[in-house]
Design goal:
Chain lengths: ~250, ~250, ~250, ~250, ~250
């Protein structure tokens, strides 16, 4: 067990109780559009049984402890399994500190010999077709990606996902961004699409059907809600129709 | 007498004239929902006759001196009694400085060999049943807590209470959060519930009836007020009824 | 002549051309409610013929030079006379810098062996009876104060006066706050009440009648103004009465 | 290959993998009015086939990665070709950091022996005549400029273009600002005017016709849009005319 | 030629290529009420043919380059002529940085043995009589001033002019503030009044008639504008009179 505390004087701390295997791939998910990043990475961690090895803290993160079944958990955590490292965040990162967080992460990735970075996020499009767009730090990486990935023709990625990919490029670490088309609500379906790309890319033995079930359950709830609202509006209109005209 | 001044260069100062007994439990109450934290800890200090041993100051605390019977008192104070330390705050801590305050406290707790941290706070629920929820830094602690405590299934604790529990977990100090269901008003009844948990947990000889009396007095005042308002509204409605219809 | 420049690297500078006598009492007045602090200390300085020995500057004070009879004066000044030091401010201190100013003052008081601090300020009450409330850093001081002083039962002092008393208590320097009941206007009458307490406490030979004259002059002006306004309103109402009804 | 990292402790980083030829001219384009600066420099880079040699990053730049054909690119980049260096920005620079960015650029220009700086920008005038105004750091430079340039009689340049020219003057580096008259929309026509000045000044073999085609395409789109809007308004007015007069 | 760069690590830089003669008087003009400070000092520089010897820059000044006849100029400049130094600013100084700028100026004045400081500014009064008010750092200076100057009985000077005079007083450098009565518009007439005081004080051979001509030209323009507005209003009223009464 090799403890690694990075930058004790910095504004962002990374503390890990175990070193990842050299040459690991790190998969990163922060909450964002459709919560695609955090749902995807959380699912991977559960299904592939990653082990928590550390966490990231900062004076600039919101003062908040998360709780699950009565136990406190740190909002940004580091996990590892074989040749994989995962970084999972339950809190969003404010724009003003994205640069700092990304720089600290990249420093640590260099220190622990990470070979490849994959950032998973959602992207809101006008007409979602459940596509997964890809963007990479070096052109050659596009050829290695599964054909189901669509290279994003033009655009920009803002926020922590953008900052991490930018710092990866600057520091010559292979970086891949997977942007799953999503909507403005927690979106397990888009997360499943993103994981399917990873499944092909890394030949993982992983079943995303649970995510589709979650998606159907959410969608069914939203459908019922929409019907209720519609019914309610009809009722409301009917009620209005029987109101006296001098109302 | 061993003076301890922590971090003279920091933004948060802890100054104590006496060292607590090694292995002490620290009980912490800041004002917050229902003022449960500060009412509970203040009551404990009074009833168990703790002695003030220090205080905490910061350039980020509001510039304010408190007065009681003509004597100035420091707004955040440290008390001790046997194997207990208590931290009582009369001022709230702004979110921007929670991280700093929590980190400084944990450093001091480590320095003076605190074994366990208990943070008392209020939690507002839709349908209060005077429950006390518990959240802990390590799962094993849940089993040691009295059965009257309900492990909080899911949620988050924001503010200084959350920051302290998070830092406790990160620094591997046992931490317990007791969150008493409360309302948006000073709430001695919820404070009594929280203290009852401590009473069982530590086998303390402590009587919370004074808190129930305070609660009844406050509730009776609020009841009278509500009746007055209701009476006033009725009067008002009666007056309106005799207004000319062309008003 | 012993020059003393405190903290050349700090954000608050104290520069004094003469050292006060060791064991001096410092009397402090900042503007605030009723301007009681600055009116009182300014009057003491004039009547007892204190000599200016230094000043306090800061990058956080407003960029402003005061002028009197064509001559520039520094807004926060230090005076001395026998066993007394006086600090008189013509500008208010913003809350964000109160902690810093108070800390720097207390450091200097320690350096020049000040024995006792008296802060004069105004306090606005619902029903002013020209009382002077007292608050002290150590209970024993209450007994030394004249009987005309009322120990303030409960409350808080915010702003620079509160910060100075807090730092005095923390640094174990005797501190007394004299809070004269006042109104929201320059109030020489309340200032006279505060000075009367000092007169008894220090057996000073000082006449406050000039302050009462100032008070009567201000009150007479305000009375005339009130009558004019009232007359004007009556005129205005009479004018309205002769307006044509189709206005 | 000579790596040059400037100011690793600063808030603005310049990192270049190759040193420009000593005595180079640097041509700088930031987005701004009509995007004239970035359109012009981007066109030069494409047509003259500059090679990317570095980039500029800062904690104060917005957290954003740009993407083109699936590949991430750094928002502020350095290019070189023969005796030319080009700096091209895809993001605007906030006023608060212009001073810092300009100072860091000038330090680097001095380090790599840049001889001359040309900043291209747009200027919005009431009555655009496609003029290119010039402003220089030393009067003698005006005589070297093509006659098509109009020395700007009076005015000021704010933002990053102004800051760079100011620092050039202070550091005695030859600086030229070319301000092409433009409108509040991406303006390839104004960019072509600016490039035409460079063409004459440096006897470059460069064809700006592609920019004119872009301009015509944009203008044609805007013309169609204007007609549609106008048609729509007429429709709207006709509809209103048939509304009953008692509306 | 003696280069003098003050405080390379500071937030305010003074860079001068020549040292002023020891014992010089510095005359300072910043824009402010009626632009009296900058108009006066600019006029002195032109008429007495001062030579530019340096400039002042800061990260806190607005990012802006000034241009005149196609040539960039630094917004805050230092000039010298015989026993005079002049500081002329074309940009206002924000309150938050006045302290820093004043302190840096006074440090430089001490370094180059400036003997006397004269700050020229405008003051808006209810009933302007073209007076020039004076305020000084030491009472004795009032007697040396021309009789046309009126010592300002009471008041305060805020902003950079106030900060400079305050720092002058604190550092025991002779300081004079000349405040010419002015209006809320560029005011060459008030500037002429201020220069007339300097003319007498230093027995300068200087003609202010050009300023009076500027003043008449401005006043004539404003008179025409006022007549036009008035005529326009009359037209407007006449138009309204012929509107149908049922409008």
């Amino acid at each position: 067990m090799t403890p690694a505390v990075l930058q004790p004087e910095s504004d962002v701390f990374i503390q890990a109780e175990e070193m990842p295997s050299p040459g690991s791939t790190v998969i990163i998910g922060f909450p964002g559009s459709g919560l695609v990043g955090s749902i995807s990475v959380s699912y991977l961690i559960d299904v592939l049984e990653f082990k928590q090895i550390g966490y990231i803290t900062s004076r600039f993160f919101p003062p908040m402890a998360l709780m699950s079944n009565g136990v406190i958990s740190v909002p940004v955590r580091i996990y590892a399994k074989d040749k994989f490292v995962a970084i999972l965040a339950d809190i969003p990162i404010q724009p003003a500190i994205c640069y700092e967080v990304a720089k600290t992460l990249i420093q640590w990735f260099t220190l622990v010999s990470i070979q490849e970075i994959i950032v998973i996020a959602g992207i809101i499009t006008n007409d979602s077709e459940s596509r997964v767009f890809a963007t990479v730090t070096e052109k050659e990486l596009l050829e290695k990606l599964p054909e189901t990935c669509v290279p994003l023709p033009i655009g920009n990625i803002s926020g922590i996902a953008g900052s991490i990919l930018l710092e990866a490029k600057i520091n010559k670490i292979q970086g891949i961004g997977l942007l799953a088309e999503t909507i403005n609500a927690p979106d397990p379906r888009a997360s499943a699409s993103a994981i399917s790309v990873l499944k092909t890319y890394f030949s993982l033995d992983i079943d995303v059907s649970a995510l589709f079930e979650q998606a159907e359950s959410i969608e069914s709830q939203m459908h019922s809600l929409a019907e209720e609202v519609s019914q309610h509006n009809t009722d409301d209109m009917q009620k209005r129709e029987i109101l006296p005209m001098y109302g």
